[in-house]
Amino acid sequence: MVELLLLCPQDEAESVSDALMDELGALSVSVEDADANTEAERALFGEPGMPAPRGGWDRSIVKALFDGADAAQDAADLLLEQDWASAVQLQSITPLIDQDWVRLTQSQFSPVPVTPSFWVVPSWHEAPAAASKVIRLDPGMAFGTGTHPTTRMCLRWIAQQTPARTAQWLRVLDYGCGSGILAIGAALHGACGVEAVDIDPAAVQATVDNATANHVNVKAGLPDLAKGPYALVLANILATPLKLLAPLLCGHVQSHGDLVLAGILERQADELIEAYAPWLDLSVSDSEDGWILMTAHRSA
Q1: Which range (13-27, 38-52, 102-116) has the least confidence?
Q2: Sorting pLDDT into bands at 50, 70 and 90, what band is 105?
Q3: Using CA atoms, how far apart are residues 231 and 198, in angstroms rounded to an integer?
Q4: In this structure, are residues 159 and 191 in contact, taking their beta carbons and an 8 Å threshold?
Q5: Helix (H) or strand (E) holding 113
Q6: Are 47 and 240 in contact (CB under 8 A)?
Q7: How far, in Å, CA of 174 to CA of 171, rounded?
Q8: pTM here?
């Protein structure tokens, strides 16, 4: 297997990709930001609820896989002869070393401690001896493996609540559930009537599968499944959608219930406090690596 790398200006990346795939025999094609990890890097998609930026990066690296070096070189030669591709530059043609991709992927995910006794553990790892509570979760299509600070902070908050308090969680909602990790974490700590919703059907299915694998009861579905009130509402999304969802999420919190929000940067705290002020008093409960956890308790 050989990898062909081409540097393309914004207007040519799509045409180059189409030509490689449709006419020049590439086995696969991917496009990446040529300025990634530099000051010139920029997000291609904005945060949900914000205006979308213009499409395409200023400069893109187009990667194409071929069966052999000759096929890759022929494709590059033919492509660069085209008048419309005059600004495209050949970067490299490199043989790829055969990899055991499953083993390589597994090597990148290790057990994640939430507390000394509460861990998130991939299925191919043994749980640590100190782990009295374990979420078994493998990387997949849906967000939430325990490696991100926002997920860990939510799980840590759940784990830090007293048994007397978790016993009162007769209904729990994980809004924007992703993999279902927060719903599963709540169920493992004694919550009943746990529901998880997401706009992505793949996330809903991932939650069903992960709950089954962890032997807990979680009812998962699209957002219209959620019918409050709930003793605990969890939402690990992003700041902008959390602001837009403020009336909905607050409306789901019952008297003496709790709201837990994550996916928020430290600099966004005041925005969230203001957005939720008509209904609940949010405060920062935890922070990690520039991210914060915000919580509120409905007193009556």
Answers
A1: 38-52
A2: low
A3: 19
A4: no
A5: strand 112-115
A6: yes
A7: 10
A8: 0.71
